[in-house]
Amino acid sequence: MADDNAILPGSIPGIILVTHGRFGEELIRSAEMIVGAMESVRALSLMPGMEPDDFLAAVKTALESMPEGSLLISDLFGGTPANVSAAISTTRNIGAVSGLSLSMLIEAASSRMALRGEALAEAVVQAGRNNCRNILAQLRGIDSV
C-alpha cells in the first residue's frame, strides 16, 4: 500500500520520544550536541508510579500540536511506551517505531525534511539496524581486506 504521506508537502513532522524514565530527554541533549537544536522534538517520560492511562493521555495531548505523519519512537518493544505508541498509531496517521537509539533520533530529525509517516518510520528503523555493529568484528574485517 502506498504511503500518501511519504513526501512532505506541508509542515515538518514532529518527533516524540516515549521512554522509561528520562532516557529520551537525555538522548535529545546528546543528539543536539551533534546536530544542533532540533525543532518539534519532545520527550515524554514514563516515571515510576505513573499510570499507563495517564501516560497515554500525555502522549495524545503532545500529538495534538503535531501534524499528521509525525513519529513516536519508544525505547523498548513491548514496554508501556511502545504499547501506548501502538494504541495511538491505530487511531491516528502517525508512525511508531521502537528500539530508540541516538542514531535513530538523528536519522528521524534529518529525514523528516523529506519523509513522513511509514516512509519516515522505515528510514529510522534502518538507521537503527545500520548502526548496531560488533566493532571488533568490523575492525577484523577491515584488517583482513
TrEMBL record:
Keywords: Cytoplasm, Kinase, Phosphotransferase system, Sugar transport, Transferase, Transport. InterPro entries: Bacterial_PTS_sugar_comp, PTS_EIIA_man-typ, PTS_EIIA_man-typ_sf, PTS_IIA_man. GO terms for molecular function: kinase activity. The keyword Transport applies. GO terms for cellular component: cytoplasm; membrane. The keyword Transferase applies. SUPFAM superfamilies: PTS system fructose IIA component-like. It is found in: Cytoplasm. PROSITE patterns: PTS_EIIA_TYPE_4. One of its GO terms (biological process) is phosphoenolpyruvate-dependent sugar phosphotransferase system. Residues 12-132 form the PTS EIIA type-4 domain. PANTHER family: PTS PERMEASE-RELATED-RELATED, PTS SYSTEM MANNOSE-SPECIFIC EIIAB COMPONENT-RELATED. This is Putative PTS system IIA component.
